[in-house]
Design a protein that fits this description.
The structure holds three protein chains of three kinds. Chain A is mainly alpha-helical. Chain A has twelve helices and two strands. Chain C has a seven-stranded mixed sheet with strand order 8-9-10-1-11-19-12, with helices on both faces. In chain C, strands 14-18-13-17-15-16 form a six-stranded mixed sheet. Classes of the chains: A mainly alpha, B mainly alpha, C alpha+beta.
Chain lengths: 316, 323, 629
Amino acid sequence: MSGTTLTASQLRAERWRLRLAGFRSFARRFASHPAGVVGVVIILFFGVMALAPELIAGPFENATRPSGTPLEAPSSAHVLGTDEQGRDVLNLVVHGARISLAVGLLASAITIILGAGIGIIAGFFGGRVDTILMRITDFFLILPTFVLALVLAPIIIDVFGVGTEVFGIRMTLVAIIVVIGLTSWASTARIIRAQALSIKERAFVDRARVIGAGPSRIMIRHILPNVMSLIVANTVLVIASSILTETTLSFVGLGDPQSPTWGTTLHYAQVTGAPGSGAWWYTASPGVAIVLVVLAFTLIGNALDDTLNPKLKARR
Amino acid sequence: MGGNYLGRKAFQALVTLLFVLIVNFLLFRAMPGSAERILLRNPHISAEQLEAQRVRWGLNKPVFPDQLVDYLAATAQGDLGFSFEFRGQRVTDVILAKIGPTILLIGIGEVIALVLGLALGAYSGWRRGGPVDYVGTSLALVLYSMPSFWLGMILLIIFSTSLGMFPGNGMITPGITGDPLTRLADLMGHLILPGVTYAIGYVGQYSLLMRSSVIEVLAEDYVLTARAKGLTEGRILRSHGLPNALLPTVTLVAINLGYIWAGAITVEQVFSWPGLGTLTVSALGSRDYPVLQGIFLLLSFSVIAANFVADIIYSRLDPRVRS
Amino acid sequence: MRMPLRTRVVRVAMAFGLGLGAVLPALRPAVAADLIYRIGTTQEIDSLNPFQAYLYSSYEAFILNYDVLVGFGPDLEYAPTALAESWDVSTDGKTYTFKIRSGVQWSDGQPMTAKDVAFTYNYILDSLETDNSITLFTLTKVTKVEAPDDSTVVITLSDPSSLILGAYIPILPEHIWKDVTFEQANNEFANDPPVVGTGPFQAVEWQKGQFTRFVRNEHYWGTKPAIEEVQLIYFANQDAMDQALQKGEIDAARSILPSQFKQIDDDPNIVGVDGATNGFDQLSFNGYDGKGAEGVGGSTKALLDPKFRDALGYAVDKDLLVSQALFGYGEPGTTVIPPLLSTWHYQPPASDLRKFDIEEAKSRLEAAGYKDSNGDGNREDKEGKEISLNLVTPDTNAYYAQSANLIAEWYKQAGIKLNVQVIDKDTVTEYVTPPEADGKANFDIELWGWGGGPDPDFLLSIFTTDQIGGWSDSFYSNPEYDKLYSDQQIAPTQAERKAITDQMQAMVYKDAPYDVLYYSAELQAYRTDKWHGYTLQPRTGGTPFFTFGVENYVNLQPGPEPTPAPPEATTAPGASPAASAPTSPVETPGSSGSNTPLLIGGIILLIGVIAIGMIAMRGRRRGPEPDDE
């Protein structure tokens, strides 16, 4: 091609400028979706809650020194009432944010890495590899998530032992994270594979192959960047569903009894009879938090989808 | 052409089913807690008794391939074995006893969800931007973000504990006697809260999907043509819009129905509904492998079958797929 | 513009639904005034076959279906209220002769004789010779059981022991059970309804997962009960059961949620019973010395050190556990024979009791050699490994998990790391099984509970070396203790026996294989508007149901407690005497938490949700429509 030749460093600077401009236009387009903006605001709010819970609600109240009497209705002293041990529910919910969000994010990481990875590999290689991988994916899609989770959680804990910790996270919590990841990757794999398949046919991939680029190089350098926008949009929705799944699993009692995730708090509300006692504040509070966070991620995810993939409408 | 497509799909379905069966078998055995100990229930036993028990239940043979082959062969003949927890009862009987309540719950729930969801979605899509659309869609989004069992707990607190309008547990009033009409009324009364809880979880999904389908369809060329020809909006909607918009929704419904058993677990827990979900949880607790395998088999089979049916419907209704 | 058909259909459907919803509650039947007594339980019976049942609800089924040989009186003393009218002991204490009640019939009309008693006991004894031993019931030291005639049973013992009187074994009909092999008895023989027994009610129907029905035995030898049918109704959760009780759908319930007990007791038509439990809940420390075998035993040798366990005993605030996890319904724990068995419970002197004191726990741990050498807040054991204890507890009671979390917090303050795992009870059993019974005993602490019989022998046996591989979950092995155990079984007088059992309890307290947390109350409740005449067993601190006899069932009479005629009408017409006025079962809405804030809160929430949605929706209007591109 003719034109001015640039030095390597000028080339790099140009690339960064383009990226910045691209990001700015993206931000503008995203901001034209009020739904997405609302979602971001909500997430920021909960993000603060997760990073600095003490600022909002003070130190975590532990059960050995509860600040109130059991099952008090909301009052000026306890805005959201107290639980069956007399702990302030607001305190519980605020401190639960960090773990609930962390579990959701970590589980999503597993889901995305597995799902996108398998999707790209299957889409790129096609043929035998694709068939086998898709059969496996189908299998995971078919297995009822919930029952699979009920089965896998005790197995994981048993295999690794309860006392072990991964990056300072208790095994019981790690088990839930892994389980959610393992049971959710399949639909992501499907979506990514479809996109990878279409990209594979494009000219630049053929050219790369002709030059002699190896499969992994092609996948990482060429296919991955082009599915990235799809992955990003999908990730946010996966986070939303991971949080919902964690809530369900903890509610049934599979969660870590020592971590006050919102799902575990709902579990305790249930087994200590909050619904029958009419202690609606105990049940409602964690639930509202969950709804807000999941809704926020869903709104962001939809807005991202519209922004990044305007022509792509996943049709069954 | 169509036959080939279906044939291929059917074959895939069978292969998946077989794969599921094998993993099914292995998965439960990997769980900690051995069946023979639970079978005996008595910690105070000798090693000889434990061994005798293993032999009796066929647990002493190597898992690969003996137990697996036995299991596959028996399943193919429709023999799902005997339950460990409910001694002497066939797995098929145990499961059949609990299927009824779940089908009832889910049946009513799906019907409510479909009627409300489709109607709401269609109207929202048709009158896009109108008040029904606003409220409906935002409500749908929120409901979609809600854990369904939580909604159940809230409904229980409001309508059962506080207002006392409906019972909050079980399927029937325990030990009820009386004429069939009274009993039916009692059953319906117990069904309302869990049914509505279940339905609300899906109304959002169906309505959102229906809405976007309707919007898409209304922008299609043939609709423009119909409008140009002078047909009224209502007419267009009824004869072209809705049937085509129904397609993805129907597909979704078929797929959902496949998953329904599992979806009901938490709702059944909240309302103490004596269905398959409750059975699953208790069977997991007592390591009742035969029952667990039976349930899993049923679930997988229904999902595979539902997907297959969805494929058929899709190929029938959407001419684009068949080519 | 005509509304699309669908919308009209929807509107009609909604109207219909709402209308139905309004009308249905009125259609709901008031629970019939009948002679059926309904009891709610959260634990279903596991088998009608006595040799296969371990759960307390099954034991209630047995006392309804069958009789034992020697009954229990109002204070759990041995009484001639069952099949034995009287009994004699030989001078050497090794031969017991029972005179069996005459004229007793089985529920199918066949006559019951001493031969059935001998058959039942011999059935158990004979099974011990085979591979299919029946081990659920123990006939301690019994060598021979004979029925020389239809009304006499002679039992010969190897050593003098009064334990045979407390043998809680249902007497079974020979004509039914003689054809059941031991293998069948232990496995597939379900003893299906209708059950044949001598008890006041016979099981006639069992809907698994729902209820079991017992119909009055018209051939019953004792006082004919006024109740015609007893139903044990199974609830999946305590909350649901409590609601059913308050609505009058059931007449009594066991295991009321502690958080709802007061509300239920306050109901004018319900009496709550805070009964002392015959058992305790504890922390079992894994004392299994795996001697280095891979994966066997606890995670640290510290658990084998009595000083370690003793120190940890100071780190638990039992008073707070009782007030918080149990809502005050219970007593802090000390020794392993619960105070309910007042004859046998040993209370250590105050100087020996461990009080809650974290500093004391810390200094004892230091003194015993468990220090925090690297300053990370967690102590290491003598092998230099960080102590990280893993606690398993079953999910059967919410207060187990709550207690575990509290204990984890206290242990942390003392410098010991504790991880809690809540799992199903069968897996817990699996974890605590030692190699002697083919397990691995890999847990560190188990939080669970025991229930005993009227005699302390069973609870004391848990700590014997013999029970390792059996009931022992602490694997405590102390030859001195074992000797005392056999001694108390043959002690000639109660006073001498008590001296020995006191010693044993003190020994267990000191060595601390268990840290007994509390004696949780058994919370039952019964309605007083349809039945009266409730009898507790034992009279003080006992409960009406799930006891050791059928006295209560036989005594209950229909109708509310009859009130004595008022002297004159001094009260105004509006004010009626509270508890004794016959009231029909009204559906009382939950009393705690009034409706108004709930409704207001709900409306605000709904508005807020719609507002968010509407903001979200506005975007769709302005943004580029996907279809418009």
